[in-house]
Amino acid sequence: MASREICSFFALPRQVRDDIYRRVLVVVHPLYLFKDAHSPNVELFAPEKRRRWPALLFTNRQLNAEASAILYGSNHFTLVDTTSNQVNLLQAFLDGIGPGNAAHLSHLTINFPAAESQEERVVLREADLRGLKLLQEKCTGLATLETHVQGGNSKGLTVTSLAEEGSQFAREALAQVDGQFNAIPSLHKVIVRFYSGSPAPEVAELMQGYGWAILPGR
């Protein structure tokens, strides 16, 4: 009976099957990813997901491949880590889902890349550069990248911190960030949400000049 049911399901047009996958696997809120520092496993929090939500993926190999494309391509994944360790969470998540599913990802939220001064140069923080390289190499279908500005990565971006760092710091930092974003060919939309302070007017103008959307934290 189970075999006949599976065959009957795959007799449906792919468009119909994809619609079923969306109804089961796509949720309206972000899917929050986090990892305990002492655990290799990435956990997922989705407050409105259905009971036994991912069970569909374990039916058979073909269904897993088709449904995974919808799961990873149509949901919004948010990395819950505001520290420089976020790159380890991103690495573990991408390794865990595999290269095929990583390529399906279309909407991610990460921290806005932080900049710092080193020997009279403005450079992006090494951990954030590693994270951006992972996106460039593995997330080849990424269309929307949402970034959060919070206390630890707001240097040179808010009204108060720009006064301390100077406009040249902001210009150099944002130019480097834009260069990294442009290295993701599939990327069409960048959102910057400010959770810590308001963006300095000059910073907002620069970001909008790069085509980024600036929004307040939710």
From TrEMBL:
Highest taxon of the lineage: Eukaryota
UniProt xrefs under InterPro entries: AN11006-like
PANTHER family attached to this UniProt entry: F-BOX DOMAIN-CONTAINING PROTEIN
This protein's name: Uncharacterized protein
Organism, as annotated: Staphylotrichum tortipilum
Upper classification of the organism: Eukaryota, Fungi, Dikarya, Ascomycota, Pezizomycotina
